[in-house]
Amino acid sequence: MRRLRQLAERTPARRERYVDLLRAVAIGMVVAGHWGVTVITRDAAGRPTGHSALGDLPWAYPLTWAAQVLPVFFLVGGFANAASLTASRARGGDATGWLIDRSARLVPPTTVMLLVLAAGAGGAYLWGAGEARIRTVVWFATIPLWFLVPYLAVVVLTPPAHALHRRFGLAVPVALAGLVALGDLGRLTGPGVLAWGSYLAGWLAVHQLGFAWYDAHAAAGARSAPPGGRPAASADGPRHPLPTSRPAAVALLAGGIDAVLLLTVVGPYPVAMLNVPGQRLDNASQTKTWHCSP
Asked: What's the angle, vertex CA 32, arms to CA 244 and CA 145, rounded to 5?
């Protein structure tokens, strides 16, 4: 606790603490969600196997609306990446240097985890554990890492995506959402090629909203900065802030809930936001998980 208190005291006053709270809650939800939804059992031969508990718990499907926190990761990531890129450019840095520095923050902890798993798997093999059991354990331990692939992709695309945001603002996530809708139309009716890239477009749309959120934060910091103080904004000022007033928040929340209800109860999408074996569609994937019978 003392170490945490020291870190909190060193944090600049202009830092948005709510972003850190969302990041911590999202990480905790990912860990708790994977632990809670995974059922580890043994098959008839006594070998460990696992499956999702959601298939046996239809009443829990609406709970996945709160448990699907990956959009929070990308929203917070957009805010943090915009803040970091803006600060880097204010210091005279370029996009390449920023990208190397930003990516390096993800690589070391991931590498350590993979090395520990590799050492554990090697030790288990020498101890006499079966290869199938080792593969199962390593697979379940590394499942949460899948999101690093799309997240690294949006980090790489941050410089050009941020440039588009500076020019077109909220029109960019709207256009990306349109690509997702077009991809889902391809999933449902064909051609399936329309769905290619819609997965990344969805996360990019949320990431772009993070840029707009940072603009709102930077604008507020610029207004509250004392005379001669350094505002938390980019050199040319925030251009496309996300509406953050209470009425706007209530309207966005009500609109989002209504849209989810229409798409899942009336529309073709399943209620569960996580993959459930046997569902006609998978909300967390860009591919169709069922085939129509002739």
From this structure: 85
- Token readout for 18 is 């709510």
pLDDT at 215 over 70: yes
For 208, counting Cβ atoms within 10 Å of its Cβ (0-12 exposed, 13-18 middle, 19+ buried), the class is buried
Please give the full DSSP string across 77-102, using - where no structure is assigned: HHHHHHHHHHHHHHTT--HHHHHHHH
Residue 197, Ramachandran bin (φ over 0: left; ψ between -120 and 50: alpha; else beta): left
- Measure the CA–CA gap between 51 and 38, rounded to whole angstroms: 6
For residue 42, the cross-strand partners are: 48
Write down the residue that tokens 């934060």 correspond to: 217
Q: Distance (Å, rounded) from C-alpha 204 to C-alpha 161? A: 8
Residue count (the chain): 294
Assigned token pair, 39: 């059922």
Nearest by Cα to 137 from 54, 52, 50: 50
- What does the pLDDT look like over 23-76, one tens digit per residue? 888 888 877 877 777 787 777 777 767 777 887 888 888 888 888 888 899 999
Cβ(210)–Cβ(195) below 8 Å? no
**Residue 199, both tokens:** 């997965």
Nearest to 232 by CA among 242, 240, 241, 223: 223
Question: What's the rounded Cα separation, in Å, for the pair 106 and 99?
Answer: 11
Q: What is the CA radius of gyration of the chain?
A: 22
**Residue 235's pLDDT is what?**
45
Element at 278 (helix H, strand E): none
| Domain boundaries, given as residue ranges, for the chain | 16-225+236-266
Torsion angles phi and psi, residue 150, rounded to 5: -65, -30
Predicted model pTM: 0.81
Q: What is the pLDDT of residue 291?
A: 34
